[in-house]
Description:
Layout: H1 12-15, H2 22-38, E1 43-52, E2 56-63, E3 66-72, E4 82-86, E5 89-95, H3 97-112, H4 116-119, H5 124-136, H6 168-180
Antiparallel strand pairs: 1-2, 2-3, 3-4, 4-5
Helix pairs in contact: 2-3
Amino acid sequence: MKFLKETGEMGQHDIEEGGEFYESAQYLKKAARHIQKLTNGFLQFVEIRPFDKYQGPYAACELLGRHAKLWFGNEDTIDPEYFLETSHNPEGLAGDVYKIAKLIKTLAERKYGMGEDILKYGTKEEVEFLLEYSKKNTNVPLPKKEKKLCAKCKKSLKHGHAKGGICDACANEEHLDKETR
Length: 181
C-alpha cells in the first residue's frame, strides 16, 4: 500500500486557470491593482506567486521602489483583509484595500515627504526623480501646490469663488458698492 504524504507545497499550476487556488490568486491580483490605483502607483503590482497551501498565494509588488508582498489577512471579517509585508515598515500594513492605501500614503508622507499634494505632479517615477534630484542638489525646491488667490484681497479661494477670480466676500463688496452709488 502506498500513502500520499501531503507537504503543503504550492506550485505555479495551483494559481493558473484550473488550479486549486486560481480564484484566490485572481482576487488577490484584483486587490493589489486596486491598491495601486488608490495610491497613484506608490504600490506597483508585479505578479501573483505561489507560496504554500496553508497561507495561499501572494501578490509580489513594489512599494516605493522596494519589494513587498500582499497576502490575504484576517478571514474572520466581513470585508476582506490583507497584509502587506514590506521593508519600509517592519510590522507590515494590515486592513482592507482602502486602509492599506491610506497607510501607504501616510508612510510615503512620513518617510519621504510624498503626500497628497506631490501626487498631483506626475507618476511615482517622476516624483522619485524629483526627490532624488532635490537630495543631491539641495538648492532645488520640491514642487509645491499653488494656491489660487483672490485677485483683489489676495486671500485663498479655497472655500469658493465668484466669477473673475475674486472671492465671494470681494464679489459681495463690489455688488454692495454698485447698489449704494
